[in-house]
Specification:
The chain is an alpha+beta fold and about 425 residues long. The protein has helices at about 1-20, 30-35, 40-50, 55-65, 65-80, 100-110, 115-130, 135-140, 170-175, 185-195, 215-220, 230-240, 265-270, 300-305, 330, 355-365, 370, 380-390, 395-400, 405-415; strands at about 55, 85-90, 90-95, 150, 180-185, 205-210, 225, 245-250, 255-260, 285-290, 310-315, 315-320, 340-345.
């Protein structure tokens, strides 16, 4: 009987995580991941917790857990990255971690407790490599909103005409806007190391965190606090190594930058290996080639981490504009400066802040109703999730709310 209960609770846990802002389709590998990371008590608490941010008192009320036990369980879950606790409005707010960015990253960044890193790496790899599950579920329907966006290397942007580069697209400006910094292990690179698939010489410690998120990362052992100069050195090293910078896909309160290589990063591999360009939102720039300056050296082909540049033809390299993310790595490695970044003709959707990004992500993923009516066991919320969820999933409704004409007013209404 106990075995049946445990089995059912992990199925319920999987359904709960799948209902967050990143889908997590169920299969036996996902069950194995959940059993590795969560005790049955932790799974039961997650299943009963609100879908959205909530303080301790509300969680206690909704879950009906005894306060001392609840505190112990929450502390344990936060230390494993399975729940995120953020200091907001004079107190901690807790939120269940989604699969990405959350469970995978924090698990592979852990430095404390019982670490079965090699086993975890194998399980995550098996789950992520099955493109019928994670990649297809999240990026197989022409999604426009993802958790990450590419940052352009500023010095690769063409300045022949006046081009305004906004602060949220400058890594240097993002650093200057914060006072607290931390660096942790890159989860993807750590995973590939244990799988024997790390082909680069890039160090593990590159993952950058800023601002309010630093306290969470340092407190739970996912990163070490560093000085601003150390963070600048980390950025300079990534420039020399030709890494892709990926930041929060929002314009305000940017909390992290990933330093990504083509051989290890699951985001970049989602484009180059599995063919899902929507997994990384592009910068507002795109690579452009000047055939007069090109020496036909081929360095750009080797440098591009997602294979967006094909073999040279008579007038130079061919850039696949359908997948180019506008990172500028090719231009960094071009000795003749024949490759530069120019403004894209089509507008790129970068939400204003984390609130807007999460709302739009959930709308695209079909889980927005869970945020609006977030108590799992409350009957009225169950009914409204079913009713409103069915309405929001209608293709004409979703298309209208995501359109330029209605998106701003829709987000303003929810914010109020």
């Amino acid at each position: 009987m106990g075995h049946t209960v445990a089995k059912d609770i992990y199925r319920k846990l999987g359904k709960k995580i799948d209902g967050l802002r990143m889908r997590a389709p169920w299969n036996e590998t996902f069950r194995a991941i959940l059993k590795e990371l969560y005790t049955t008590e932790e799974a039961d608490l997650i299943v009963k917790m609100p879908y959205s941010l909530a303080d301790f008192d509300r969680i206690q009320k909704v879950t009906n857990y005894e306060p001392t036990k609840l505190r112990k369980l929450l502390d344990g879950l936060c230390s494993k990255g399975l729940v995120m606790d953020m200091w907001m409005m004079g107190g901690y707010r807790y939120m269940v971690s989604p699969l990405i960015i959350g469970i995978f990253e924090f698990t592979m960044m852990r430095t404390r407790g019982e670490l079965k890193t090699k086993e975890w790496a194998k399980l995550f790899h098996e789950y992520m490599q099955d493109q019928r599950t994670f990649y297809s579920a999240n990026f197989g329907h022409n999604e426009k909103v993802s958790v990450l966006r590419a940052l352009p290397w500023e010095e690769t942007i063409d300045d022949s005409d006046y081009v305004e580069v906004l602060d949220y697209e400058k890594a240097s400006a993002i650093l200057d806007s914060h006072k607290k910094f931390a660096i942790g292990i890159c989860s993807c690179r750590h995973e590939k190391l244990h799988l024997g698939e790390k082909k680069c010489d890039v160090p593990l410690e590159t993952c950058s965190t800023f601002g309010l998120s630093v306290d969470y990362m340092v407190k739970n052992g996912f990163a070490k606090e560093v000085s601003k100069s150390e963070m600048q050195e980390n950025l300079a090293r990534s420039r020399e190594l030709g890494l892709v910078l990926c930041a929060d896909n929002n314009k305000k309160n940017i909390s992290f930058i990933c330093h990504c290589c083509g051989c290890c990063c699951n985001i970049l591999l989602g484009i180059s290996k599995f063919g899902y360009p929507g997994i990384l939102v592009t910068s507002t720039f795109i690579a452009s080639h000047d055939e007069d300056n090109c020496t036909d050296c081929g360095d750009c082909i080797e440098a591009c981490p997602i294979n967006a540049i094909d073999e040279h033809v008579d007038n130079g390299p061919v850039i696949n504009e359908s997948i180019c993310v506008g990172c500028g790595v090719c231009a960094l490695k071009c000795p003749s400066e024949a490759l530069r970044l120019v403004k894209r003709k089509q507008r790129v959707l970068h939400p204003e802040d984390t609130f807007e990004r999460i709302i739009l992500q959930c709308l695209e993923k079909g889980t927005l109703q869970n945020l609006l009516f977030d108590e799992p066991e409350r009957l009225s919320h169950k009914f409204l999730r079913g009713f409103v969820g069915g309405f929001l999933k209608l293709p004409p409704v979703k298309k209208s709310l995501m359109s330029d004409r209605l998106r701003s007013s829709f987000l303003s209404t929810l914010r109020k």
